[in-house]
Design goal:
The structure holds three protein chains of three kinds.
Chain A (H helix, E strand, L loop, with lengths): L1 H34 L2 H26 L8 H17 L5 H23 L4 H21 L1 H4 L5 E2 L15 H6 L1 H22 L1 H11 L1 H6 L4 H27 L1 E2 L6 H14 L6 H19 L3 H15 L3 H22 L1
Antiparallel strand pairs in A: 1-2
Chain B lengths: L5 E10 L2 E11 L4 E5 L6 H8 L7 E6 L2 E2 H12 L1 E3 L12 H13 L13 H13 L15 H13 L5 E5 L7 H17 L4 E5 L3 H7 L2 E6 L2 E7 H5 L2 H8 L8
Parallel strand pairs in B: 3-8, 3-9, 6-7, 7-8
Antiparallel strand pairs in B: 1-2, 1-4, 4-5, 9-10
Helix pairs in contact in B: 3-4, 3-5, 5-6
Chain C lengths: L1 H31 L6 H21 L4 H14 L4 H8 L7 H23 L9 H4 L2 E3 L4 E3 H23 L1 H11 L1 H6 L4 H23 L9 H16 L4 H21 L4 H15 L11
Helix pairs in contact in C: 1-7, 1-10, 1-11, 1-12, 2-3, 2-5, 2-10, 2-11, 3-10, 4-10, 7-8, 11-12, 11-13, 12-13
The chains are: A mainly alpha, B alpha/beta, C mainly alpha.
């Protein structure tokens, strides 16, 4: 049987390419603190955070076919968990804060997901939006617990037990926290890679394409959707913790539905079909916004216009665009070498 | 022991005031190849949907291995050994042929919740995928996404994925519709051979083509206007001109 | 008793405005299968333009009833943005609905800045227009006459919409298109023209709703995004795509909100979502919905 072996080789080839590209990307990001300005570096921290959130959102949207318009809920939960743990409970370790944020997100995601995953498509989007706004109104209205619209502050944390309070804010963020977040992004990407390639990921894709058929092939549609929802919530919480630790604040606007819309914006901007999509999308969104904010007071108008153009002309996102370009290049190369 | 795999006890189904299926009794046992025939609107698909739990009976009960089908749900049914194909082409457009068959194979082996193993390098699964693909002549197509297959191949893939569950009973709703006559026989032969190879104990088939039914089925259930008008071994069925006429949907010659 | 009646009237006032926006959302979803996140922007646009129109009308010395007519006409006139926006949306009709949702989200983002450019960051009001209507003495209690007027307008629109959809030829074609687009096109319905008209009608319902609400409150930058959330609650409760559902959902949300504000202000949105979740558990398709996917 020659056919499977060539495809097996092709797959191995593709994997090697991906690994090579990934290593290169990581090397660039690891060397960046030596060359980039502190300002750029502090901007990359939220890029890392959002990349992790988008990995989770991709599992839900790209792999499982469920578009959440309330995913910001879990970023907010991560951020507020960080505020409560560092502020009220005196927890110093970022590892513990991350675990706490994940635990809180999982506890919320199970009932929310249980109710939401019975639906797909637009109904799922509207339901998740509703749950996100429910939490937002809780944050705003219950001032005593949450600090209302001013939010809660997040204290400086220790990384791996190291007390870094002697560092200035900028030194902390452009040094240890930068590398910490980079490692988290790598770990989160590898973990998600495994999950999407697993039988679990295969069953998620099957139910995305045709839920009824999948059921009759023994796919536990609702249970697996719920598992994907909870997983993506956990990823969202990690992102929320990082964002809050960076900004020193947990803000109710994190839970507002337009923030969820921005997450979806980044997902589409980066392209939801690939593993670099989240990093590309988060990077493009944050630096684009920063650039526009510096140019004009009316940056939202410009961002909206860009979103319109992306949706209409580049539906597969920047990563999709790059993939098309490399395919074209490779084809040309193949043609030339054959001649 | 001749206990039936599927047992229907005076099950009926109504939609509002419309009776799709009057109360019927039916038992399908190991070793049977049952064809369900009848004109359009006779209630064939309704019957299969009752048998597979997609519809709940309005009265009566349907059991599989002694358990109420409508309470089990499709996932448990699949685990217990019942598989079905669909009338309209239903595949996973973005999954390759190999992946589609693997979906069922993972369910069969109870490995779907393995979160960290690679879906592509499971030897047991790949072996099963290769066997099923071979049985259905899909080996050349293994790495193609289902959406790129020809119509007949999509049908085959739908049936093949159901077989990959290694079911005891398989229910097929017009697996050959929209396929040329020559292909129909090829599909049916593939089906029969695959059933034997994979130890399928009973096949239930909805089919319009009387020629196919006469060739492959052992027992025929004729439906007309939501009623069973005949449930007989093949030979007794085709000798009754009146019954044949009713299920084909036109009066027999010389009837007027 | 008087307090109870005040809650009911206050709730109905809010329900009246919510109904208009939600009905627009339902119409567009029913026919085009697009959930329009920009519905809140249309509402805000109506409010801003209505406020400016009122200022102008008061400035030139029109009598109060005529000011109101000007405000309503201004709201209605905003619907001219419908056809060009629909033209942009048309590029994604045959794509996944996530792209449709994102495109309307982009509209919302852009409108928010357009409001900032046009009217600045400060809320826009119509001054004393609301008060000049005076109060209506209904025996047991008094109520602002303007609120009663808005409720009456919403009831008129609801009745008109019902008549339009059930009795007119165009309404029948519209419902047929919503039911089965391919079938409707096969019998000669021009779906493109239909989509443009329906979308514009949806815009008009939103902008008129905004123009109606502005004398009683103010036009502000947050109102667009905030309204989307309430309108979603209305359509989830009522059932997606159903105009009767929009009516029922709007009344429920309006009354619950009014009651919550009086009894326990913190629970305002929480109470609405408690109902949304209860409805989804008990009747997943909403009160008037056909079936959930």
């Amino acid at each position: 049987m020659p056919a499977p072996s060539t495809t097996e080789a092709a797959r191995r080839n593709r994997n090697l390419c991906a690994i090579g590209g990934g290593v290169l990307l990581v090397a660039v990001l690891a060397l960046l603190p030596g060359v980039a300005s502190p300002y750029t570096l502090t901007m990359i921290l939220p890029v890392f955070a959002y990349a992790i959130a988008l990995l989770g959102l991709n599992l839900l949207f790209g792999t499982s076919g469920l578009l959440s318009f309330g995913h910001a809920l879990f970023l907010a939960i991560g951020a507020y968990a960080a505020a409560v743990m560092t502020g009220h409970w005196g927890v110093k370790s970022l590892e513990l804060v991350l675990l706490g944020g994940i635990a809180a997100a999982v506890v919320v995601a199970i009932p929310v997901g249980f109710l939401s995953v019975r639906y797909t498509r637009i109904f799922f989007g509207m339901l998740t939006l509703s749950f996100g706004m429910l939490f937002h109104s809780f944050l705003i209205k219950f001032y005593n617990v949450t600090g209302g619209d001013t939010g809660m502050s997040v204290k400086r944390v220790r990384l791996l037990g190291l007390d870094l309070s002697h560092l200035s804010r900028v030194e902390f963020q452009t040094g240890p926290l930068y590398y910490y977040a980079l490692v988290l992004v790598i770990a989160a990407t590898l973990l998600m890679w495994r999950i999407v390639q697993s039988p679990f990921g295969l069953h998620l894709r099957a139910q995305r394409d045709n839920a009824r058929k999948a059921e009759y092939l023994g796919v536990r549609v609702h249970a697996f959707r719920l598992a994907a929802f909870v997983l993506s919530a956990a990823y969202g919480a990690v992102a929320g913790v990082l964002l809050a630790v960076r900004s020193g604040n947990a803000d109710p606007e994190l839970a507002y539905w337009t923030h969820s819309g921005e997450l979806v914006f980044m997902t589409v901007l980066g392209g939801f079909a690939s593993f670099v999509g989240p990093l590309v999308g988060a990077f493009a969104f944050i630096f684009l916004r920063d650039w526009l904010m510096g140019m004009t007071e009316f940056w939202r108008l410009a961002m909206g216009g860009i979103l319109v153009l992306v949706v209409i002309f580049v539906p597969r996102g920047l990563a999709g665009l790059a993939a098309d370009a490399t395919t074209r290049l490779r084809n040309q190369f193949d043609l030339r070498s054959r001649r | 022991m001749t206990s039936a795999l599927i047992e229907v006890k005076s099950a009926s189904r109504t939609f509002g005031s419309f009776t799709a299926l009057a109360p019927i009794d039916l038992a399908i046992s190991s070793g049977e190849f049952v064809a369900i025939v009848g004109p359009n609107g006779a209630g064939k698909t309704t019957l299969v949907n009752l048998l597979t739990g997609l519809l709940r009976p309005s009265t009566g009960s349907v059991t599989f291995k002694g358990q109420d089908v409508s309470r089990l749900g499709p996932v448990r049914l699949a685990r217990m050994g019942m598989a079905r194909g669909f009338q309209l082409v239903t595949v996973f457009p973005e999954l390759t042929v190999a992946e589609t068959i693997a979906v069922a194979a993972f369910s069969r082996l109870g490995r779907a919740h393995h979160w960290f193993s690679s879906a592509h390098s499971d030897g047991d699964i790949n072996g099963r995928v290769a066997r099923v693909a071979d049985a259905f002549g899909l080996t050349d197509r293994l790495e193609q996404p289902a959406r790129l297959l020809a119509q007949g191949e999509k049908k085959l893939l739908d049936v093949a994925s159901a077989f990959a569950l290694e079911p005891e009973v398989i229910l097929l709703d017009e697996p050959t519709s929209g396929v040329s006559t020559a292909d129909k026989h090829a599909i049916m032969q593939t089906l029969v051979i695959a059933s034997e190879k994979m130890g399928v104990k009973a096949v239930v088939l909805i089919e319009h083509d009387m020629d196919l039914v006469a060739t492959y089925a052992g027992r025929i259930v004729g439906l007309h206007a939501g009623r069973v008008i005949a449930d007989r071994p093949k030979n007794d069925f085709f000798t009754d001109a009146e019954v044949v006429a009713m299920v084909v949907g036109r009066p027999p010659k010389g009837f007027h | 008793m008087a307090a109870f009646a005040e809650i009911v009237l206050g709730g109905l006032f809010h329900a009246a405005v919510l109904f208009l926006v939600a009905a627009g959302l339902q119409l567009v979803f029913g026919v085009q299968k697009i959930v329009n996140l920009a519905c809140g922007a249309f509402y805000a646009l109506g409010a801003y333009v209505g406020a400016s129109a009122a200022k102008w009308a008061i400035g030139v010395g029109l009598p109060t009833p005529l000011v109101l007519v000007v405000v309503l006409l201004a709201g209605l006139a905003c619907a001219v943005i419908g056809p060009p926006l629909e033209r942009v949306l048309r590029t994604v009709y045959d794509r996944d609905e996530s792209f449709q949702l994102l495109l309307t989200f982009a509209f919302l983002l852009m409108f928010q800045d357009l409001f900032r450019i046009g009217w600045g960051a400060n809320p826009q009001t119509t001054g004393s227009l609301f008060l000049s209507f005076g109060t209506l003495d209904l025996g047991l209690f008094k109520t602002p006459a303007y609120n009663v007027f808005v409720i009456a307008v919403a009831i008129t629109v609801a009745a008109g919409l019902g008549w339009f959809l059930q009795r007119t030829n165009f309404g029948r074609l519209l419902r047929a298109t919503a039911e089965n687009r391919a079938m409707a096109e096969a019998v000669g319905v021009n779906a493109r023209a239909m989509f443009s008209v329906v979308f514009t009608l949806g815009v008009a319902l939103g902008t008129v709703g905004g123009a109606l609400v502005v004398p009683a409150s103010a036009a502000s930058l947050d109102m667009a995004a905030e309204l989307v959330v309430e309108a979603f609650a209305v359509v989830v409760i009522g059932g997606l795509g159903s105009i009767s559902g929009a009516l029922a959902g709007a009344v429920i949300v309006g009354l619950v909100r009014a009651a919550a504000i009086v009894f326990y202000a913190e629970a305002e949105l929480l109470a609405i979502y408690a109902i949304v979740i209860a409805v989804l558990i008990l009747r997943p398709a909403g009160l008037f919905g056909k079936e959930a996917v």
